[in-house]
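User: Sequence recovery, please. Input:
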């Protein structure tokens, strides 16, 4: 290669990388919007639920309306999940609790397969 061609090649490399990064960002946003639209379509089923059914899953009619009042490109399920998580009591991890099974010689007396853990 001549030095002139090498100079053009080295000058074009950063431009090509910028184009690739911008294209990647655009594709990422397009995927996000497509996923938000899919979730919006899936969450539209909740709008057909009655108040009792919504209460069973920890939502209110107002939550569903607010989720769908978000802009079209935002995922309504994010808001719904956050609302349910705020209302549910914190569950205690049963496995984190200390065991009441005594250790006999360094071995637990109850077989783990029997307990289902």
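Assistant: Recovered sequence (117 residues):
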């Amino acid at each position: 290669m001549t030095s002139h061609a090498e100079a053009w090649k080295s000058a074009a490399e950063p431009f090509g990388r910028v184009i690739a990064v911008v294209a990647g960002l655009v594709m990422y946003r397009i995927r996000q919007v497509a996923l938000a639209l899919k979730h919006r379509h899936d969450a539209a089923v909740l709008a057909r639920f009655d108040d009792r059914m919504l209460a069973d899953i920890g939502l209110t009619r107002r939550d569903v309306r607010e989720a769908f009042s978000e802009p079209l490109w935002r995922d309504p399920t994010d808001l719904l999940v956050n609302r349910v998580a705020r209302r549910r009591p914190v569950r205690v991890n049963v496995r984190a609790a200390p065991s009441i099974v005594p250790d006999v010689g360094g071995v637990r007396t109850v077989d783990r397969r029997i307990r289902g853990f």
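Confidence is low (pLDDT under 50) at residues 109-113.
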